[in-house]
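ok, trying the design again with the full structure, not the truncated one.
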């Protein structure tokens, strides 16, 4: 093994350390044992999972804006409640069918982490579910109920893009945040 590949392996392990620790903790919680044996087997399982089921190494930037994160959480909880009420109303409205559509949402600032955050956020809000994610085109496809017109689809797409912007403000990379601010300044300048 040459020194360059050793350095690459060490860098990968360092970048995956939070994930490895999470897997070890999850293993110990799964067996409800916090013993040295559970720790050792957790380490073995974590290394096995990360080496056999190899995923691309994702670098965490470590940038968290506390204010925007708090705003995101509050708005998200409100959206979950509003979504649940909307779905309940549609279910009990026997006069018309709720309507559904597959909506394509091309993301603007997304890397793998932001795409995952947006997909999870959109899926956790009642009434929508991610059915596919195109990584190369940075596009999400969501099954959404309550869609009757193209205006409904456009409104939903705009809402998902607002969630993307909120997530970038809260945990995006400095480059993503700068691109978001530049786009906002351009949009303000056009108006």
């Amino acid at each position: 093994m040459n020194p360059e590949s050793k350095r690459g392996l060490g860098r990968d392990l360092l970048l995956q350390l939070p994930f490895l620790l999470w897997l070890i903790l999850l293993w110990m919680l799964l067996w409800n044992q916090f013993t040295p044996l559970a720790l050792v087997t957790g380490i073995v399982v974590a290394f096995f999972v990360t080496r056999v089921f190899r995923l691309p190494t994702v670098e965490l930037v470590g940038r968290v804006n506390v204010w925007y994160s708090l705003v995101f959480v509050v708005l998200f909880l409100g959206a979950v409640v509003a979504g649940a009420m909307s779905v309940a109303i549609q279910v009990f409205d026997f006069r018309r069918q709720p309507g559904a559509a597959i909506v394509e949402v091309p993301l603007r600032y997304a890397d793998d982490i932001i795409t995952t955050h947006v997909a999870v956020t959109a899926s956790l809000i009642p009434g929508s579910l991610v059915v596919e994610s195109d990584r190369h085109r940075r596009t999400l496809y969501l099954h959404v109920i309550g869609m009757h017109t193209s205006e409904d689809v456009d409104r939903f797409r705009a809402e998902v893009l607002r969630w993307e912007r909120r997530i970038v403000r809260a945990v995006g990379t400095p480059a993503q945040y700068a691109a978001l601010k530049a786009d906002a300044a351009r949009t303000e300048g056009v108006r």
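Keeping the full-length input from now on. Helices lie at 3-15, 17-31, 36-52, 66-92, 112-124, 150-171, 174-190.
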